[in-house]
Amino acid sequence: MSLLPLQKNGFLSSLQFQKGNNKGNNWALVLEDGSVINFTSIMSIDVDSTNKVINAPTESAFATYNKSIGPTMISLNAAFAGSDSERQPITEKLLALSGDMSLLTLITPETVFKGYNIESVSYSRKPDDGVNIIYFDIGLVEIKEVEQQYTNVKIAKKKQTGQKNGEESALSGISSKIFG
Predict the structure, then answer these.
(1) What is the CA radius of gyration of the chain?
(2) Which of 88, 102, 104, 166 is the most exposed place for a label (fewest CB within 10 A)?
(3) Is the full-model pTM beyond 0.70?
(4) Which pLDDT does position 10 carry in this prediction?
């Protein structure tokens, strides 16, 4: 498989990818800055979208009353073939992305996963396959962005509780009678 034409930093621009310069490769990892990491091969992808149904026990059975939607987790195993100068920026970029909160888009032939963050990256090189290939295991987690909403709610004033001026507490009254 031939390598895609890369920019000096080892990445395709998103414009190159969108114009069809991906040469039949329907997989890409699009970064926030618009650059694209386009792997030589995708070995596997596992998508886990687990949601929990909430149950509560009742006297004779249980009640199901809500569903909690969890983040989708993606495990991507990809390979990149190229010279040291082509592999190095990809490796450094993926490792750097695993340490920040950048949101990425994963493009696959079936769907587009928007709003994901790299949670983990590991990589290996195997001499059996050649020294110019590096294998990445990338863990992505969905980040659900919400818009903050503010309201103007009046908070009730605090009520005074406890001892009031001029009143004797029950404890001080008892102690004065005992100790004089």
Answers:
(1) 29
(2) 166
(3) no
(4) 41
